[in-house]
Amino acid sequence: MKVNLKSALNDSHIDANQSNSQRQVAISLSAVSESSDRSLPLNLGLILDHSGSMSGKPMKTVKEAASYLVEGLGPDDRLSVVAFDHRAKVIVPNQPVDEIDGVKDAIASLKAEGGTSIDEGMKLGIKQVALGKEDRVSQIFLLTDGENEHGDNERCLKLAQVAGEYNITLNTLGFGNHWNQDVLESIADSVGGTLCYIEQPEQALTEFSRLFTRMQSVGLTNAYLCLELTTEVRLAEFKPVAQVEPETVELNAQQEGNTYIVRLGDLMTDNARVILVNLYLSQLSPVNHTIGTVQVRYDDPALSQTALLSEKIPLTVEVQGVYEAKVDSNVQKSILTLAKYRQTQLAEAKLNKGDRQGAATLLQTAAKTALQLGDKSAATVLQTNATQLQAGEELSEAQRKKTRIVSKTVLQSDQE
What we know:
Blueprint: E1 2-9, E2 13-15, E3 20-32, E4 42-49, H1 57-72, E5 78-84, E6 88-96, H2 100-108, H3 118-130, E7 137-144, H4 153-165, E8 169-175, H5 181-190, E9 195-198, H6 204-216, E10 218-229, E11 233-235, E12 241-245, E13 249-250, E14 254-256, E15 259-268, E16 273-282, E17 288-300, E18 305-309, E19 313-320, H7 329-352, H8 356-373, H9 376-390, H10 397-408, H11 412-415
Helix pairs in contact: 1-2, 1-6, 3-4, 4-5, 7-8, 7-10, 8-9, 9-10
C-alpha cells in the first residue's frame, strides 16, 4: 500500500501588493492498493449497551446486527465483544473468528438490564481489542442509547485518547434519542472515528454495515499529516485545521519547529480524507514561491512496518504584480463544507443559551450553505428546524441529533 497525497489552494495566485494574504489549502489522503496487496486482517471490538432501556426491539435488532458482522469476518480476523450496563463484562474475549456459532450464541444471550456506565464498557473493550491489534486494522464500534448516568464523561474522553495511543479507532453509535451527542462525537472525533445515529431500531443493521464496510477498506493505519511551512507562512490562530471529508471534524495540530503534526488515524482505499488548512502569508516578491511541504507518516500492517513516510509534495503559489485570481472549485466546496458545520455549531450554542431567534438565523444560513453544496437533505433538515424555532417551538431530541449529523456529513440518501 502507498499513500495517494494531493494538495490544492483555494487560490494559488497571490497579490504582491498585499502585506498579508489568507489562503486555504485542501489536502487529500487515501491508501492506494497495488496489485500484490491483499485486504488487511481485521481486529473488531464491539462494545454494546445492554442497559434496561435497550429492552425489546432495540436489544433484538442490535444483537441481529452484531451477529451479521460476525458472519462477515474472515479466518484471519479477530473479534471481541464487551457488554455494559452500570458494569461491564466480556461476552466474547478477543479471539480468531473460527467458532462463529459459539460467538453468535454468546451475543444472543444478552439481556437488557441495569443502568449505563459507558466508560466501564470502554475500559474493558479497549483492553480486549489491544490484545489482538498486532498487524491488523483495529476498530471499536461503541453503541449506547443513554446518558452516562453511572459513569464519568471525562473518563470516556481520556479512554478515547488511550485508544488512539494504541492505534485503535473508536466509532460511536447513538441509539434512539436520549444519548449525549457531545460525548459520543468527542469520543469518535478524537481518534479518527465516525459518529452514527440510529434513530429507529431497524436502522441498526444499516449503520453497523456501513461502519464495517469502511473498516474493510482501510489500507494503512496510524497516519499523521506533517505540514512544514516557510517562515513567511503561519497557521491561522483559531481552529486552523479541520477534516471536511468523509466527515467534518475539528483537528488539533502539534507544532514542532516549522512543522505541524496532525493525527488522522486510518487511511481508506475508497474514501479519501480531505483536510482543510487555513494559512496566512506575509508579503512576497512577484515570482513563484514554495510556501511549504506536505508529507504523511503512517503504518503498513501488511508489511509489519511503522513510521513510514510518503513522498513530500510542495505547496506552491504564484505571486503576481498584477493579480488575477485562480480559484479552485473543489477547495471552495471544502470551505463551504466546513462553514456548514461551524454555522450549525454556533446555532446549537445559541439554542443552548435560550436564543431561539439567533439559532434560527444561523440554521437558515447553514441551510443556504448546504444548498450551495448540493446537500438537499441537510438543507431541508436545517431549514425545517429554523422555521420551527422562529414559530417559538422547541426542537425535539431527535431533531437536535439529526442536525448534528447533517452538519458533519452528507446523508446516505444524498450519497447514493
